[in-house]
Amino acid sequence: MSIDSELASRPPAELNGKRIRVAIIELEISMECTRRALASLAILFVAAACRKGPLPSSEKEPHHELNAAIAKAETIRVGLIASLTGKYSALGSEDKKAVDLAVEQVNAAGGLLGKQVEVITRDDQTLPDKSVLAYNELKGNDVVAVIGSVFSNSALATLPLAQTDGIPYLSLTPAEEQVIPVKSYVFVIPALANAYAERYLEYMQASRIGKIAVAHDTKGAYAISGYNSTKSLAAKYGVKIVNDEVFETATNDFSPLFTHLKGSEAQAFLFWGTGPTGVTVTKQYAAAGLKVPLFMTPAQASKLWIDPVGTASEGITVLSAIGVVGDFLPDGPQKQVIAAMAAPYQQKHGYPPPQFAQDGYSACLLLFEAIKMAKSADRPKIQQTLENLSLVTPNGKYKYSSTDHSGLTRDYISVNVVREGKFVPTDWAKDKLKRTLAEQK
Q: How far is Cα of residue 148 from the mean position of the Cα atoms in its chain?
């Protein structure tokens, strides 16, 4: 018979006494169980304290996974691989400044999907193998996407991993082999090198420049890509390469090259190079007293080039993204987007955002818009949204598609001349950009 049944058959007075005794017994049992549980717990603590060395991975992993899941739920993590040291540190530092600004702005506006955006930065030291290591670290931090290095060789070493892992990779370098053929998870932010090359050739044709000299860096993927495009497209625009010169990234003496130019028929000298070589060749070119106009690419569209070369930059022709010449544009959506970046950037750093900063900021706008439109930070959903995204950024209006992961046409590239330390669009460029922006509306 159960205790409850037995109690039900007793008289009330006896019943009350019995119930009191049962309650006391139950309390004693409960206290004994509690004492045993506390004793067992104490033994566990003592054992843990006496254990030497780290916990086995089987015991750590649940906690690690829990912490990662919590962190991922609290923030949307974006990875940035930047060349903060090495030969391209000046370029990479501008990328980081621009990305930090974009993240600061989006968080001030409430973040994305109700969460704050967190950028995790790793330095590739301007070395491809370090870029791969940086990518693997970012991957381990559960980033939703990676904004890649400004160094073409680093990007080309890293993006195959992102493609395999299914992590959206937004590259800040214009080498066309990154997206030709298309790789589903790889998107390029600057206009491709072939677009820059063709824009120059268009301008040369309009300026009646029919013979040119070209020099390119044989160690840089960007320079090689730009040179190859120039060579393959030249005839289309009635341009002939009469001097074809080469150099390497480490070159610091361009006098042999200039000697070849002195007896040349070239009407312009087009230089495909990045980093310190752009400064070196400009100074030596001015000192050589050559009269052939010097044409530089967007790698020099920055105070990082203008400041060190000083007055030697005066009159040199330089390509750039449209955002670099925002002050010269007519009012409209494009100018407004440029100003939204340029004003706070100038306030923070004391100078206008250079080409490389425009790229980093545009990458953030594209990624943030994809996350908002997808209503998800899921990597495949971000990729699918990017692939169908159209958006105005400081670099111009992007139109990505399943067959085009560069998204930016040469219509948003400006041909400028340096005047008193500023990039001023040529009359030809002003007219072209005005027409492009009229169509954009």
A: 5
The full DSSP string for 394-435 is TTEEEE-BTTBSS---GGGEEEEEEETTEEEE-HHHHHHHHH
Structure pTM? 0.82
Which residue matches tokens 């000298």? 269
- Give per-residue pLDDT as tens, 155-174: 999 999 999 999 999 999 99
User: Distance between CA 251 and CA 248 in Å, rounded?
Assistant: 5
User: And the tokens for 310?
Assistant: 């000083």
**Tens digits of per-residue pLDDT, 121-132?**
999 999 999 999
Of 318, 362, 415, 430, nearest in space to 190 by CA: 362
397 CB-contact burial (10 Å; exposed 0-12 / middle 13-18 / buried 19+): buried
Query: What gap in Å lies between CA 83 and CA 211, rounded to an integer?
Result: 36
Q: How many structural domains are present in the chain?
A: 3
- Return the residue matching tokens 């100018």: 335
Q: Is residue 276 part of a domain?
A: yes
Q: Based on the domain organization, do 132 and 227 belong to the same domain? A: no
In single-letter form, the type of residue at position 150 comes to V
